[in-house]
Amino acid sequence: MILKVLWPGRTKTAAVRELEEHYLRRIRTLAPCEVIVTETSRGLDEKAAKKILEIEARGLEKRLKDDYIVCLFDGGREMTSVEFARFLSDREASGGRGVAFIVGGFLGLADRILERADLKLSLSRMTLSHELCRPVLLEQIFRSLTLMKGRSYAK
C-alpha cells in the first residue's frame, strides 16, 4: 500500500516540522509514504477565502491520481486508533489504489475536494490548527502501521 499525505504550503513552525519528519521516517520503515506539499496562496488576506481555497484546490487536484482519498474534516468520521488501523488494513487488503490523505490549509478544504473524498476523517472533536493536524495524522498512521505489523507501540 502506498500512502500519500498532501497539504498546501510548507509547515512554518520548526518544532512541528521536526515532528512531521520524525514520524515520516518511522512510517517509511513500515510502508512507502510520500508527503506532498502543494501550492498555497501567498499574500492574500482571509477576506479572499474563495480565491485561497481555489488556489489550494487546484494545487491538490494536480497531485491526485486514482487514489482512495481521505480528507481531514472537522465534521468527518471519528475513529479510535484501533479502528483506524483496521481501516488501513482493509485498504491494504483491497489492493490497487493507494491512500491519499489530504489536510487543508488554515481555511480548510474547498467543497469540490471534500466531494471527491472516499472518506472524511476527523482527528478530534476539538479544533486543531492545520499545522498541528499534520504531525497528529502522521503519528496515527505510524501507530496504525505498527498495530498492523503486530508490533508494540507505547501508549
Written account of the structure:
- The protein is an alpha/beta fold and 155 residues long.
- It has a single domain, classed as 3-Layer(aba) Sandwich (Alpha/beta knot).
- Helices cover 43% and strands 20% of the residues.
- It contains five helices and five strands, in the order βαβαβαβαβα.
- The protein has helices at 14-28, 49-61, 81-94, 111-116, 130-148, and strands spanning 3-8, 33-38, 68-78, 99-102, 119-122.
- Strands 2-1-4-3-5 form a five-stranded parallel β-sheet.
- Helix 1 packs parallel to helix 5 and helix 3 (81-94) crosses helix 5 (130-148).
- The model has no long low-confidence stretch (mean pLDDT 94).
Global morphology: globular
- Oligomerization state of this entry? single chain
Total strands: the figure is 5
- Count of alpha and pi helical runs: 5
Structural class: alpha/beta
Give a short account of the largest sheet: 5 strands, parallel
Low-confidence stretches: none
Q: Percent range for helical residues?
A: 40-55%
CATH superfamily membership, which one?
SPOUT methyltransferase, trefoil knot domain
User: Which second-level CATH architecture applies?
Assistant: 3-Layer(aba) Sandwich
**Mean pLDDT across all amino acids:** 94
Strand order of the largest sheet: 2-1-4-3-5
Distance N to C terminus: 25 Å
Domain tally: 1
Cα radius of gyration in angstroms: 15 Å
Strand content: 15-25%
